[in-house]
Amino acid sequence: AAKGNGKNTWHFYETDLQKTADEDMLIKQGLREAIKRNELYLHYQPLGNPHTLAVVGFEALLRWNSAELGPVSPGRFIPLAEENGTIQTIGEWVIGEACRFARRLADRGKSHLRVAVNVSPRQLVAENFVPLVREAIRTAGIKPGQLEIEITENALIVSMEDSIQKLKALRTLGIRLSLDDFGSGYCSLTYLKNLPVETLKIDKLFIDDIESDADQLRFVNSIVSMAQLQGLSVVAEGVETESQLNKVRQCQCNFIQGYIFCRPLPETDAMLFLSNTGAN
Ligand code: C2E
Ligand code: MG
Ligand code: MG
Ligand code: MG
Q1: Helix 129-140 and helix 160-173: axis angle, to 10°?
Q2: Which residues hold their Cβ within 5 A of ligand 4, which is an ion?
Q3: Distance from the CA of 9 to the center of ligand 1, in angstroms?
Q4: CA angle at residue 53 from 96 to 271, to 5 degrees?
Q5: Which keywords describe this protein according to UniProt (predicted)?
Q6: pLDDT tens across 191-216, in order?
Q7: Residue 115 near residue 155, CB atoms below 8 Å
Q8: Exposure string over 200-226, b if 16+ CB within 10 A, otherwise e
Q9: Which residues partner with 115 through β-bridges?
């Protein structure tokens, strides 16, 4: 909207709102066709050991290059896919594709590396979620431990009891689970005890000021200690600078993810990154 434009401000604001609503609609329509048209693909961002910088796994991140709209970021389209339900088919495609990537890793002797996928609340509450994951693993011919599922705190709020049951079922199958964006929502350390997750991903928000803000550093330190006391490992998300990396090391985070280590990459480049980093 045009700022400080006197009496025109409201007019421009209204137009902007209309534009956003129109674009939302185009995105929602486009999402229905995106799989058929081969417009979706995954990028893979390596996670590493903060000391040796060895790759320990990858996070699969969804990308959409729409014929009509151009590239649309997941931050923009995932919430709309949740709204119109297309997240079900799209999410199923993501899980299948990530499992096939894990299969290709295994074919290169890298079956110890995990591949994480993000799962949104609406996927988790779906009746068929657990069988769907089991089937994707079976079809790709991978070990369950090669797949990791990332959920956020929001996913749990929707339907806590049901979600915990499903997470337990996934754990029983041998699938890894992590809690994503920890600290950005209604984080409660008390319910963490009841969650069958094995990894906590500390939100980028907390890593951002870790070098400049002593309170923030203490906070991250205490999250890490608390998580590790409960037997969880901790990932620091969004580590961008050398000094953040040093703080993250000091805090004894188990793993790092962020531009300082590597950006999300197409599969070919992810494989190259892997062969170029020594100790994997
Ligand atoms: P997320 O799961 O927390 O993923 C991490 C996000 O941080 C990714 O953004 C990644 O590109 C970005 N990132 C990683 N390191 C850095 C860094 O050092 N600096 C900065 N500035 N950013 C960094 P991306 O790919 O745009 O994805 C955004 C969110 O969209 C994800 O956050 C996740 O919540 C959601 N998402 C992505 N793919 C999927 C998917 O397949 N399914 C679902 N349900 N959600 C997805
Ligand atoms: Mg994630
Ligand atoms: Mg995250
Ligand atoms: Mg995030």
Answers
A1: 20
A2: 181
A3: 34
A4: 40
A5: Coiled coil
A6: 777 889 999 999 999 999 999 989 98
A7: no
A8: bbbbbebbbbbbeeeebbebbbebbee
A9: 58, 147
Q: Which of 233, 171, 163, 240 is nearest to 206 (CA)?
A: 240
In 38-110, DSSP assigns E strands to 40-48, 55-66, 70-72
- Of 31, 63, 78, 119, which is best to mutate to test ligand 1, by the most ligand atoms within 8 angstroms of its C-beta? 78
Tokens of 67: 């014929």
Q: What is the pLDDT of residues 15-34, one digit of tens each?
A: 788 888 889 999 999 999 99
Confidence of residue 2 (pLDDT cuts 50, 70, 90): very low
**Is residue 3 over pLDDT 50?**
no
Task: Give φ, ψ of 143 to 5 degrees.
Answer: -75, 140
Residue 165 burial (CB count, 10 A): 13
Q: What percent of the chain has pLDDT over 90?
A: 79
User: Which pair of tokens denotes residue 244?
Assistant: 């953040």
Q: Return the amino acid letter for 101.
A: F
Helix, strand, or coil (residue 117): strand
Give nearest CA residue, ligand 1 atom 25.
Answer: 61
pTM: 0.94
* Atom 15, ligand 1: residue with shortest CA distance: 258
What distance in Å separates the CA atoms of residue 61 and residue 59, rounded to the nearest whole number?
A: 6
Residues with CB under 5 A from ligand 3 (ion): 180-181, 237
Collect all residues with Cβ–Cβ distance below 8 Å to 64 and sequence separation of at least 6.
31, 34, 39, 40, 71, 72, 74, 77
Tell me if 56 sits within 8 A of 113, measured CB to CB: yes
pLDDT digits (tens, 9 = 90+) for 56-111: 999 999 999 999 999 999 999 999 999 999 999 999 999 999 999 999 999 999 99
Average pLDDT, the chain: 92
Tokens of 92: 């199923």
Q: Are strands 55-66 and 70-72 parallel, antiparallel or unpaired?
A: antiparallel
